[in-house]
From TrEMBL:
Sequence intervals crossing the membrane: 6-32, 53-77, 89-109
Alphabetized InterPro entries for the sequence: Anthrone_oxy (IPR013901)
Record carries keyword Membrane: yes
Protein name, entry field: Anthrone oxygenase family protein
Upper classification of the organism: Bacteria, Bacillati, Actinomycetota, Actinomycetes, Kitasatosporales
Organism: Streptomyces violaceorubidus
């Protein structure tokens, strides 16, 4: 069983990855679907407003804080290599860092930036919006699954 600082780090890892899985899941299951049901100009404007609001301390501290925590857990685990749960700890960290953090940077943020530059009232907007919703949501499913799997890996490390 993990104890001491490993226990605290791992519990924080469970909380961070679990919260992020919930946020991503909400977007995949109903937020983006609701926005997609709006006329394209309104959906684009609403998603742009959400994306701007997301880069504030409340969300970013959990999103980035969990990434930093995953790095700390991975480094500490690699250096100390605890008898119990090393594989689960490294797996949880890798899942979040690659499947949530890196996917966000490589797939979701570039799509958000493109959407922000799109004129919501243009003729091209409706087609671009439909593609954005499909692509962004597909990558968001990856983030959801990776964050949830990271939380499970960290929970298994505690068992």
């Amino acid at each position: 069983m993990i104890d001491g600082p490993y226990f605290v780090l791992t519990v924080l890892g469970v909380l961070g990855t679990g919260v992020m899985a919930g946020v991503f899941c909400a977007f995949s299951t109903f937020v983006v679907r609701g926005l997609a049901a709006l006329p394209p100009a309104q959906g684009i404007a609403a998603m742009n407003a959400i994306n701007r609001a997301a880069v504030r301390p409340a969300f970013m501290s959990v999103f980035l804080g969990t990434a930093v925590l995953a790095v700390v857990i991975a480094v500490v685990t690699s250096v100390r290599w605890p008898q119990d749960a090393a594989v689960e700890l490294l797996l949880g960290s890798g899942l979040y860092l690659v499947g949530a953090f890196a996917v966000t940077a490589a797939a979701n943020v570039p799509r958000n930036d493109t959407l922000l530059r799109l004129d919501p009232g243009s003729a091209k907007a409706a087609d671009r919006w439909t593609a954005y919703v499909r692509e962004w949501t597909s990558w968001n499913h990856v983030r959801t699954g990776a964050s949830a799997a990271a939380a499970v890996a960290y929970v298994l490390a505690l068992a």
